[in-house]
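2024-03-11 09:14:02 DEBUG pipeline.ingest accepted 1 chain
2024-03-11 09:14:02 DEBUG pipeline.ingest length=366
2024-03-11 09:14:03 DEBUG pipeline.predict start
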Amino acid sequence: MSDAVRPVVDNWDDIRFHPASALKHLLANMKISYLELERRIESLCDKSPMSKIDRRKLKDLVQLVDDGLDREKDVALSLRQLMALDAFLSQHGEGLGDKPIFERPALLRSIAECGRVTITLGAYPHDPEKRNELNLWDVRAMTELFRAMEKLKPGLDVEFQDLRFGRELPCRPPFLDDAGPSVICLGSPRACYAAELMLADMLKLKAFTNESEPGSPLRFIWSPKASRPHPSAFRGEAKDIAGLDKKLAKDIAADRTWGAIQIADKLFPVHGSPKGAELTTSHGIVITQRRPSGRIWAVIAGASGPATHACAKAVEENLTEPSPEGKRNDTRARWNIVECTIQQDANLLGDPRRVISHRVVEHGMF
């Protein structure tokens, strides 16, 4: 169970008026004019003038999708007009009795609406058997997100891509092209090549540099024992945060703490599992961006495996903030820090850890 509090809506532009969105979508698919839309709605209801919605009002209603609900010009609808809209929209599976009139933007819904989705995660070569090994927690996260999107949009075109670590840096995968699908990457830059490439594009940095970029607003600080399969623009060292938290820097350098996520001057530690400790705390980050093509990229990066799974659960439960809706010129990246509590369970086979709670503790924009 999660004890997270759902983020507060900052303004009306974060709310979507379902009838307006549904009408805009249907107009595009049916290729009809506002006059024809007026006629079709009128044909489904009684002849009362109070039920009629003229084409000018329908156009103003659809314009709410682009302008947002906080625009100066309002659109007044009577109860009879709402009933007329419901009669028309119900024919197309968008009835007001089946879907809420107001919808809070949700990350997974926005991704699913893009039509094509790729979920990618890191893979580790196991050459003797010619196999790739996947992280258990990444697979669990992938399963959670796939099930949730399938529920939102049955039959959604979802592809899974594992990116295998090798001695050489990878070529840019085709699914990250401008005309590609929406992409969900599971794992930090240390765990998946795609995370490095996507974050570098999102934050306008150069990927795979030997040291963290001075201008990077995001860093992952790892214990010296953490493997370094490739250079990263987002890797920091314990000494880099000594000015912010001397004790945490010493604990990371001495491997008493596994690491930390740094956003500007804020640190979110990732504690290890000392012997005998039943509960530990970890953090992860969810970073999303609407691409110029309208597709959405999401990097779900736990600083530990269980934290990645916790981040995926937070996304599934709509606890994280979505990418900006309907604003294709807004390429800012939105971040959410997820905190989770991990319990050691001796009864579990293999990895004894399990996530018992998760919550969003902070969010903002890059």
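2024-03-11 09:14:41 DEBUG pipeline.report DSSP finds nine helices and 14 strands in the chain.
2024-03-11 09:14:41 DEBUG pipeline.predict end
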